[in-house]
Write a structure and sequence with these properties.
Blueprint: H1 19-25, E1 31-34, H2 41-44, E2 50-54, H3 58-69, H4 71-79, H5 89-101, H6 105-118, H7 146-155, E3 159-162, H8 166-172, E4 177-181, H9 204-221, E5 225-230, H10 233-238, E6 243-250, E7 262-270
Parallel strand pairs: 1-2, 1-4, 2-3, 4-5
Antiparallel strand pairs: 5-7, 6-7
């Protein structure tokens, strides 16, 4: 089995544990396009010639561009915040305040990693004013991911990072590309709507539009799209006509430890064999 590379960020819904299954489902191609790159586990654990990695989170994309261009300078600055005196509630809220006030991309990138590793459950969440508002996590000794940052930087030389919407990412796809979509997942119930990580969140309408965009680009432009989501009747209805397969996966982000059960994961592949008659 191939050794898997961990991302340097903690991330809700990260795909590290799912990579063996994902690799089996991803089509071959020259370039992988990820409209929802997140922590980048799929990017780190696949071998395409090139990558177009997109996200609407400006802080995330800004961080990746800096890690790609100046990893050693970034590591030196970020490491300085990973010490005992900075692993305290007052220090955390001070850095969070500085992050929210800063306009400097490098400083924000350094603070972002600190907040990611010291904040509650590695969540990335903003309020309506666009301010990062995740509370302190109270961890004994937060890990500084130096080797993971270096590995990401090396692989990133094959990648282009863009802060754009998934629709814009689709428009940039060309022949020979493969698209992998890891959107905020559809809620398991009407009360389980913990999907808002950036901005106004990803609505059920957005889920349906993503399915439609995927269908069109596969049928009309011959570009295959793989989407992962919860395996529930809603998503099976949305992805009608795509090739559907179920995978078991451990959920790590949960309000309660008892909620960390295995949930069925759905892999929906749109390609040139998409069954248009399924929509009639």
């Amino acid at each position: 089995m191939t050794m898997k590379q961990r991302a340097f960020l903690k991330w809700a819904g990260g795909k590290f544990k799912l990579m063996d299954d994902l690799r089996r489902h991803l089509p071959e191609g020259k370039r992988l396009v990820e409209p929802f790159v997140g922590a980048g586990s799929v990017f780190l654990n696949t071998q395409y010639d090139a990558y177009l990695l997109c996200d609407i989170n400006q802080d995330l994309i800004g961080l990746y561009k800096i890690v790609k261009a100046q990893p050693e300078e970034y590591i030196r600055a970020a490491r300085a915040l990973f010490c005992d005196e900075m692993n305290a509630k007052d220090a955390y809220y001070d850095i969070r305040s500085r992050f929210n006030k800063s306009k400097d991309p490098f400083s924000r990138a350094v603070y972002f990693l600190y907040l990611n590793r010291h904040g509650f459950n590695g969540l990335c969440r903003y309020n309506r004013k666009g301010e990062f508002n995740v509370p302190f996590g109270s961890y004994k000794k937060p890990y500084f991911p130096e080797q993971e940052i270096r590995a990401f930087s090396i692989k990133a030389q094959r990648a282009e990072f863009r802060c754009i919407s998934y629709e814009q990412a689709f428009e940039l796809a060309t022949s020979g590309d493969v698209i992998y979509c890891d959107p905020p997942y559809a809620p398991l119930s009407t009360t389980a709507s913990f999907t808002t990580y950036v901005g106004a969140g990803f609505t059920l309408d957005d889920q349906a539009l993503l399915a439609r965009h995927s269908r069109h680009i596969a049928v009309e432009r011959g570009i295959p799209v793989l989407i992962s989501n919860h395996d529930i009747p809603l998503t099976r209805g949305l992805y009608l006509g795509a090739k559907l397969e179920t995978v078991k996966v451990q959920r790590n982000i949960s309000q309660k430890g008892s909620g960390r059960n295995k949930v069925d994961e759905l892999m929906a592949l749109y390609d040139e064999t998409f069954h248009l008659e399924a929509l009639d």
